[in-house]
Amino acid sequence: MSTLPEQIAEAGVVGAGGAGFPTHVKAGSTVDYFLVNGAECEPLLHKDFELMVHHAAEIVKGAALMKNQVGAKTGLICIKSKNQAAIEAVSSHLPGTGLAIFELGDFYPSGDEYEIVYAATGRLMPPGGIPLNVGCVVNNVETVLNIWKASQGDSVSEKFICVTGAVKNPGSFWVPVGTPFADLIRFCGGVTSEKYGIYVGGVMMGKLTFDTTEVVTKTTGGLIILPEDHKLVQRKNQPEKNWHQIGKSACDQCSYCTEFCPRYLLGYDVQPHKVMRSLGFTGQNNAMWNVYADLCCSCGLCTLYSCPEDLFPKEACDKGKRENKAAGIKMDQKKPVEVHPFKDGRRVPLKKLISRLGLTEFDVHTPYRDEKPAPKWVKILLRQHVGDAVSPAVTEGQPIKKNDILGRPEPGKLGSVIHSSVTGTIREVNPAYVIIENSETR
Ligand code: SF4
Ligand code: SF4
Which domain holds residue 392? Predict the structure, then answer.
């Protein structure tokens, strides 16, 4: 009989909230607190809410298994107070599990691990640390659902996602991993804007694409379709050098980006206004300012909410972090991590953020749908997780069944097993992906 971490590894469970860290590694920890992250703070995305309402029993069972596995004395399922339907659904399954609900406010970014660990436990991670450093393991709600499924022998071959924005029928539903975005848009009745961009994983922390042949992975949280002339698409859709060029000439060092930075307010030495200074320098002078980007979590608030000049401090921080990594530079924060006295007063309510982003008209219910898209083919990436890509263990022309293994990590390497999400025939294999023709849609 295999252990829970072995079942989780064999099922290919990774952090479904976007991070993609292999869950079996976390399952090998011993901690004080086990936290389930149900914050879902990206504007417009509601798939975790729908999951908690419709799969509450499995989520609680998965959370109870993981809490016991990591030896946690305290297990908390963190849900925003505004999501009463989710709280009620989950609460009804809690008796006898040793788990409790922890209610969160409706702020951005309340789901950031640093934020949620502090809110639920009062503990502050060391600069650059992980929850384990302060005796915590955090899993997203879909991850704990997948932990429960893994304990029942089911692998991660489907992803629960939310598709919203400029589509006729926004919704939340299960979809085979590897499904092309075009199938999802069709499944939602098509677009309401002739020309559009697709935000993958959210407008704050996700990426923008115009390519509908891109596919769902184990970490895709949702698609937000926006008209091509929406200001968010316009701002994001320009060459990176433009962001930095305008920042170099127009930043007046007002420091609002730093004053509203959630990491700065928690006590970490992130100072995007100083990183903006790096845009005018090269070499050592540049590195002197880049170091203030090192502890940034790329939440996007500085670029999309705080900066009165519509500049791109988050993107300057992303560039700074890349350059720090290449140069082997790390922020060595000497001052103690102490929460800023104005932190509570400077939190950003989600409704206000949605209004500032010009998204109010798209802030709609994304109801749970039982039916699923049936793509003609799926393209399954061999690296959908933190760690190395897996080597394909299948060949072209080979028949394959849903849940069969396409590849597994090398022994001793960080990675996750990848499974087929449909039954059909392998059409293409290369080191990056496998394409499978779905025989059930012919
Ligand atoms: S908020 Fe904008 S203008 Fe002010 S310091 Fe930051 S980047 Fe510069
Ligand atoms: S993206 Fe901006 S606001 Fe967010 S953590 Fe980084 S510097 Fe702070």
Answer: 376-442
